[in-house]
Amino acid sequence: MKKILMLSLAAAVIFSGCKKDDPIPVASVTVDPATQTVEVGAALPTLTAKITPTDAGDKSVKWSSDKATVITVNESTGALAWAVQEIQSETETVVITATASNGKSASATITVTRKPIPVSGGTITASAEAFVVDEELPTLSVAWTPEGAVAPTSVAWSSDTPTVLDVTSAGVLELKVADVADPVEVVISATAQPAGVTASVTLTVQGKITRYEVIDCSAELGLLVLDRNVGATAAYDPDATDNTASIGNYYQWGKNVIVAYGAQETADAELFDPTWNAEGENFSDWSVPANTPCPIGWSIPDKDQTELIANKAWADYDWGTQTDEEFEAAKALYKKLKIARNGAFRVQGEKYLPRAGYFWSSYLNVVDGPNAEGIKMAYAVQDNYDINRSKRELVTYAMPVRCVKAASVQ
After folding, report:
1. Which residues of 209-235 are buried (b: 16+ CB within 10 A; e: fewer)?
2. CATH code for position 83
3. What residue numbers bound the domain in which 258 lies?
4. What is the pTM of this model?
5. How deeply is 389 buried, as exposed, middle or buried, from its count of CB atoms within 10 A (0-12, 13-18, 19+)?
6. Looking at 161, 191, 209, which one is the last position of a domain?
7. How far is 73 from 94, CA to CA, in rounded Å?
8. Which residues of the chain have pLDDT under 50?
């Protein structure tokens, strides 16, 4: 009987170490959603931790954030919260981890992006802020600020003086005038949408007259005279060793096509017309100032002005027909006029009298009619160191243009 009792006690001890209600350990943890991208300040995701097996004894987890300076997490509930209003870099990566009591863990990766930076200002840069009407137009570029701002969905360009200088929807300038008498300031603007922010630049449109100085010959001739030929980049200087810059453009009479320039020895064969007779498709009536190559408000001297220039600037070195006072006045006017030495191109296309000064008048000699070959004639000034009075030249010739204005017209 004693043996039976002892066996029963041993069995009880054995069975007491194998209880069926021992807790089942956690095998794995997963976090959902595993990845998320969120703009700083926006609603944060709700994270859930899934424990495997589902009948694990202790399903609790402890939450943690590896960048609590950006996103914090409640260690019990897993609720997320922002710790910042903005981040310094373009993105930040925050890892939120759920850890079970036995050390099993899983994480969710949250990529934080910066808030879009709106456009708050801008600058338009022009390749040139002042230009002459016959020069290449400036190009425009616009930069929006601050750096990294969201690019505009569209840009609306505008001009405050579109009748002079306009701008296309692509920001390309368009000149609407052939010339201006005085400089015109034009404001070109670009407005970024949808921000509604506007950037502007002021451009100065300059007339052809900008290139010239004005010689006041009102006392001698009743005229204002431009100091150089059309197209010249400098006035004639009798003391200079090189006056190429004072020559300018060569034109056939009544034709606003440059057939030669500066020190060219031969005219452009494609542009110089040996059969030109001041008529036809390219003809411009130079008796109308607006039809000439002169700056707006200026004209090629007419018949009377041409004769006056030649007569008043002619100094009689040989015949004694002038008083000393007239002689000195003529020399002084001749020097003042700065007549460039440029020669003229004749029908054959070669330069004639390259050391002589020539320039056209606006007078087509219709009274005398054409020459024997039917070629029309025009008046011009010829200065082969002895200025000629109203010399007639064939319109087929090519020579420079000099522009004048009545002194009473300011």
Report:
1. bbbbeebebeebbebbbbbbbbbbebb
2. 2.60.40.60
3. 213-406
4. 0.71
5. middle
6. 209
7. 11
8. 1-2, 4-5, 7, 9, 11-18
